[in-house]
Specification:
Helix content is 33%, strand content 18%. By secondary structure, the chain is an alpha/beta fold. The chain has 6 domains: 3-65, no CATH class; 85-208, Alpha-Beta Complex (DNA primase DNAg catalytic core, N-terminal domain), CATH 3.90.980; 229-348, Dna Topoisomerase Vi A Subunit, Chain: A, domain 2, CATH 3.40.1360; 363-460, no CATH class; 515-765, 3-Layer(aba) Sandwich (Rossmann fold); 766-868.
């Protein structure tokens, strides 16, 4: 009942009620019970539920009116279909938000060792007798038919039609969470039990024809996964208490027989060592002992290191009781000690037999048929959940903050690292048993053996390994897949080749968000940057694009531009603005590197980033010009080839890196400027670092606390745009970045933002030093070539050296273009190379061109762009033919066979770009100026 309706009804005069006591066949329409309450027509005197009552009588009854003015939402029919984990989490979260935690339940939890803050984090709630109808009305209004697909909601028929209730009473509700932190089930602990009635049970609708929750493992909330070592116990509340009372995170299974479901969860959470802590009654209960044996065997078979905690029963039944009393369990770590302990338990035999079956690893017999031994070794390695293949190497994921390559990473940042022969040998012995056959040929005896060296070398050198998963990269946030679905399940994702490391973060994204949802999500994100002085709204949209791009990287083909956070003055917050992106996307500051001093240094760092699978990198505090050949190649590439340092081996890695950069009034190289998305801060304060009065004075902490909510908002924008069919917003093309533009730019404009790329030309005009120098060269060309017949490079240098004052503009321009030393002109070769590089680029309607003279020398002159118009159609046709011919392996007409690039420049990285280099030399896309290289 709505509050205003309750007010209207309570103000209406009504005669004194004549209460008729409810019965089991005539239930109370408010609490659904058949005793204690009463009714008079459409008025109920409920003794249990106060919420929604219009008045109260002296005997403690709560008077409810169920007349026509009450909202009576339609109750869906019961269904056995189980809602997905996201829907269950949404419904259970909404239900728990409506319920209190009673004082005596609070005291009981406190007595078990939980603080008020820990209870609030876990969202324990109380149910007493019945739940108000108003709560169900609000849930029905919000979730509709989905409500009946969530275990625990029961439809009953009362005197005034069907009503909803919960399948529990007089209990405390305990949320059961999955590895993503979602509430996928509710367990309840009854206040009073009789006979053989269980104290704990799952909230379920199964007995009433609805769905049941199964027995999902419970992952404690508030733990920063992955954790290499974790405990497993029986009972969700025990797991929560043990997590709070010890430094070891404790995952709980619903019962001793449901341990198999925890195996995949342990893998997803990155656990390597599992500490099993079953209740102390394993020493007397054969069922518990059998399942303990089976679990130990199952964990070993899955490759986990297993340890077992034991304690005397008089110190407490569960691990939580032991810890609350200040006790310390005995820890068994060796397989021999564990097996000896299990052998003493009163098992029924089947569990102990599982342990005594011996080694479950496959046996590999060493022989001269090396191919068989190697094949069996690779098959054994395929059972290793922590081993992957990438770019022809076996790799693993580590988190050590490696910074030996000139890139500063957070200490906990995960990266991809190669696995060497020694580690492969170790992993093989963990997953296979090597033997040699000795003695009688007819009845040989198996002798344990080490993997031979030739076997290790052959396995490491294969280049590809059947059954071992291919790893494309690591992500620490959910991402949008190519099919528009959102990757939220931690661990390896076969669809994208990504490993998702969520570390306990909860991110919720609706299945069918609308444009209004996307706009509301944009407002949530914009709140982060409320204190930053963007020069124009398009620059704010550029920051939004910076956030969305790494989250949508698997969903578009081709490269993404570099996001340059530029400012007019130091202290304006450039690095902090970039770190907000890092905090949202990775949960930490962005990996950083300084601006490379030269192209060779840039190449080495890019290769290191590609090898280690970094998703983001920031070039911080640029003091000089940004841009070089290697960076330009990386910004338009999706793969990266290079020769490893100190080795002759060429490697080829995926390059899905999203670049950022910061600086004050940054100057860009000409070829870099078209690859940059500007984000400009314009602070009109002399000392911006002394500002105060911020909306979020501790912005980093604010973003870290709200990371889940911000990620949900960013992914909602992307998901909503996909659900809408990715409608084109008819934006100007951005050559080389079509895939990024079609998704990120269009999504932002569709959600009501300005086009972030609309400010690109301003950046180019402001920062393109080469364009300014070329303009000066073209404008002053008549000073060195007054007849317009053209001049050779040698003559041009002679004129400039002889008459530097009259030709000052051309002199200065050539020195800037060639980076000549102060006061010196370049030599003939340097000048010729530079002029060939910039020929054909139109500035002010004119461009520089060359042609041979009678002596077969190249002469240079300035030509109007209009005189070349007749050649455009032929050039475009030739470029189109070039692309088609190359796709068929045929060279286009007018071309010659080229020496392979790896032979021309053995130390130059080769970047695979979406556009053919040969075609680019003949015809440029519409948004490029003729002569500008790709």
């Amino acid at each position: 009942m709505k509050m205003q309706d309750a007010q209207i009804l309570s103000d209406s005069p009504r005669p004194a009620a004549q209460w008729t006591t409810v019965t089991p066949s005539d239930l109370c329409a408010i609490c659904g019970k058949g005793d204690w309450c009463g009714h008079d027509g459409d008025t109920y005197r409920c003794m249990r539920v106060a919420d929604g009552a219009t008045s109260h009588d002296d005997a403690g009854g709560h008077v409810h009116h169920t007349g026509e003015r009450n909202e009576k939402p339609e109750i869906p029919a019961t269904t056995s279909e189980l809602a997905g984990p996201g829907d269950r989490h949404a419904v259970y979260s909404a239900l728990l938000a409506e319920l209190p935690l009673f004082g005596y339940h609070n005291d009981a939890l406190k007595a078990r060792g939980l603080s008020g803050e820990q209870m609030a984090l876990r969202k324990y709630r109380s149910v007493k007798a019945g739940v108000s109808r108003g709560i169900f009305a609000r849930l029905l209004e919000k979730f509709g038919t989905k409500l009946m697909q969530v275990p625990g909601f029961i439809r009953r028929d009362g005197r005034y039609g069907p009503f909803l209730t919960l399948a529990c009473r007089d209990c405390i509700l305990i949320p059961v969470r999955d590895e993503q932190g979602r509430i996928v089930a509710l367990k309840y602990r009854q206040d009073k039990v009789s006979g053989k009635q269980p104290r704990y049970a799952y909230l379920s609708s199964k007995k009433n024809g609805g769905p049941g929750p199964g027995s999902p493992p419970h992952v404690p909330v508030g733990v920063a996964w992955p954790i290499p070592r974790a405990r497993v116990t029986e009972g969700e509340l025990k797991g929560d208490v043990a997590t709070c009372l010890s430094p070891l995170p404790t995952i709980a299974i619903g019962g001793v027989a449901s341990w198999r479901g925890v195996l995949s969860v342990l893998h997803a959470l990155g656990v390597k060592t599992v500490v099993v802590a079953f209740d102390a009654d394993a020493a007397t209960n054969a069922t518990v002992a059998d399942n303990l044996c089976r679990m130990v065997a199952g964990l070993r078979k899955e490759g986990f290191v297993v340890e077992v905690e034991t304690w005397p029963a008089e110190q407490g039944k569960g691990i939580d009781d032991l810890l609350a009393a200040g006790g310390v369990p005995t820890l068994l770590t060796s397989e021999a000690a564990i097996d000896a302990h299990l052998a003493q338990l009163p098992t029924k035999g089947s569990g102990l037999a599982t342990i005594s079956e011996g080694d479950s690893r496959p046996t590999i017999v060493i022989g001269t048929d090396e191919h068989r031994v190697n094949d069996e070794s690779v098959a054994a390695l395929s059972a290793d959940h922590d081993l992957y293949q990438r770019a022809g190497s076996l790799v693993q994921i580590v988190a050590d903050g490696f910074s030996g390559d000139g890139i500063e990473r957070p200490a906990s940042a995960p990266r991809i690292a190669a696995v060497g022969p020694a580690t492969i040998r170790e992993r093989l012995t963990r997953h296979a048993r090597y033997v040699r056959l000795e003695g009688d040929a007819e009845e040989p005896e198996e002798k344990p053996a080490h993997p031979p060296d030739w076997n290790i070398k052959a396995v490491c050198g294969r280049g590809q390994w059947a059954g071992i998963r291919a790893l494309d990269g690591i992500t620490t946030a959910p991402v949008l897949r190519g099919d528009g679905t959102v990757l939220t399940l931690p661990g390896y994702d076969p669809a994208t080749g990504l490993y998702l490391d969520l570390r306990g973060l909860v991110v919720e994204v609706a299945e069918h968000p609308t444009r209004d949802d996307a706009r509301a999500a944009i407002r949530i994100l914009e709140d982060v940057t409320a204190d930053f002085p963007f020069e124009r709204p398009e620059h704010g949209a550029g920051w939004l694009a910076f956030v969305l791009t790494p989250l949508a990287r698997p969903a578009f083909n081709g490269p993404a531009p570099l996001f340059l956070v530029d400012a007019n003055v130091r202290g304006s917050g450039k690095s902090l603005l970039c770190d907000t992106v890092g905090m949202i996307v990775t949960g930490d500051a962005l990996p950083r590197m300084s601006n490379p001093n030269d192209d060779d240094e840039a190449r080495k760092r890019i290769t290191s980033l590609a090898i280690r699978g970094d998703a983001l990198c920031l070039i911080d505090n640029i003091a000089s010009q940004l841009g070089c050949a290697s960076l330009d190649a990386a910004l338009t590439a999706t793969r990266w080839q290079d020769r490893l340092l100190g080795r002759s081996e060429m490697v080829d890695f995926p390059l899905r890196l999203v670049w950022g950069a910061t600086g004050n009034n940054v100057i860009l190289a000409a070829d870099t400027s078209r690859r940059v998305q500007p984000i400009r801060l314009d602070c009109k304060i002399e000392r911006p670092e002394e500002r105060s009065g911020f909306r979020h004075p501790h912005l980093v902490d604010h973003v870290r606390r709200n990371r889940g909510r911000l990620l949900s908002a960013a992914l909602t924008v992307l998901r909503a745009f996909h659900v809408a069919g990715r409608p084109s917003q008819r934006l100007p093309e951005w050559g080389s970045f079509e895939g990024w533009s079609n998704l990120i730019r269009n999504a932002l404009v569709w959600a009501g933002q300005p086009d972030p790329a609309a400010v690109r030309q301003e950046l180019v005009d402001r920062s393109d030093v080469q364009a300014a120098a070329l303009r000066s060269l073209i404008d002053g060309w008549d000073e060195v070539d007054p007849t317009g017949d053209g001049v050779t490079t040698a003559k041009l240098l002679t004129v400039l050296a002889r008459d530097a004052v009259r030709c000052e503009a051309v002199h200065t321009a050539i020195c800037e273009l060639t980076n000549a030393k102060p006061g010196q002109l370049p030599n003939v070769r340097q000048l010729g190379n530079k002029l060939r590089h910039i020929r054909g680029r139109v500035i002010g309607g004119r461009y520089l061109e060359s042609h041979p003279n009678r002596n077969d020398q190249q002469v240079w002159r300035v030509t109007s762009a209009g005189s070349a118009g007749s050649e455009c159609s032929e050039t475009h046709s030739l470029a189109h033919e070039s692309e088609q011919s190359c796709s068929m392996g045929v060279l286009p007409r007018g071309s010659t066979k080229q020496t392979p690039q790896s032979q021309q420049t053995p130390h130059r990285p080769i970047a695979s770009t979406p556009t053919l280099t040969l075609a680019l030399t003949m015809a440029q896309p519409p948004d490029r100026e003729p002569g500008e290289e790709g």
